[in-house]
Amino acid sequence: MQWPAGEVSPLNIPAWRGFPLRARLRELFPERPVLVHNDGVALVAGEHWAGAGRGVRNLLAVTVSTGVGGGLVLGDRLFHGTSGNAGHIGHVVVDVDGPDCPCGGRGCVEALASGPRTVHRARAAGWAPPAGQPADGHTLAAAAAAGDEIARRELARAGTAVGAGLAASASLLDLEAAVVAGGFAQSGPIFWDALLAGFERHAGLAFVRRMRIGRSDDPAGVALRGAAAFVLAPERYGWPD
User: Fold this and answer.
1) Half-sphere exposure of residue 172, counting CA atoms within 13 Å on the CB side?
2) Rounded to 5 degrees, what angle do the CA atoms 146, 151, 157 make?
3) 3-state SS assignment for residue 63
4) Which portions of the chain are predicted below pLDDT 70?
5) What is the pLDDT of residues 176-228, one digit of tens each?
6) What is the pTM of this model?
7) E strands, the chain, in order
8) ∠ CA(70), CA(73), CA(77), 5° rounding?
9) Given this model, what pLDDT does residue 73 score?
10) Fewer beta carbons below 10 Å: N end or C end of the chain?
11) CA distance 71 to 134
12) Cβ contact 111:99 at 8 Å
């Protein structure tokens, strides 16, 4: 995304590459303030303002879904970085010999842990959904819960990758807490246990291990609250127009 101009180019929605979202919204709502940011940034703003990250000065929020994204609050304020992409944990490399990623890199968290990539990997290993059911993350998680070994292995691999990415982020940024949301992150204890184990395996330093990891209180709605925070609490979550 081009920030703060609000031109979006989501990797997983090719038809929206270079789409001038903010300009179009300002045409539709000329009397209203319009701010556009990454959904992972809205997630961390929502968690910090009115969610599981309340009271945390240095927070990472992560969404694991069709892609893997995130956002940062540092020093009790939303942190944008140079281009508005600070906190994008999905493109932290956790396996230098890992699979290609849609971003053009290799071995990123997203390449290993997103729902579609995990399903693709399971299907390549021989897993198939039951007749009449879609080959998606929900079906894969259900198969894993029912004991399918391929589904269990690939779901655990995804969780491990997220845990390793969290450890790397904590090491770089000295964070207090991380909150994990997103549809694929709701895949159950196999994913979550692997995430925590992956973090423990890669969190070698004491200050890294002190970072708390929790689940979102409202994974479906918290990013919408964050979008509201951009406008309603600009002293911490807004930016110059």
Assistant:
1) 14
2) 130
3) strand
4) none
5) 999 999 999 999 999 999 999 999 999 999 999 999 999 999 988 999 999 99
6) 0.93
7) 59-64, 68-74, 77-79, 177-181, 212-215
8) 145
9) 98
10) C
11) 31
12) yes
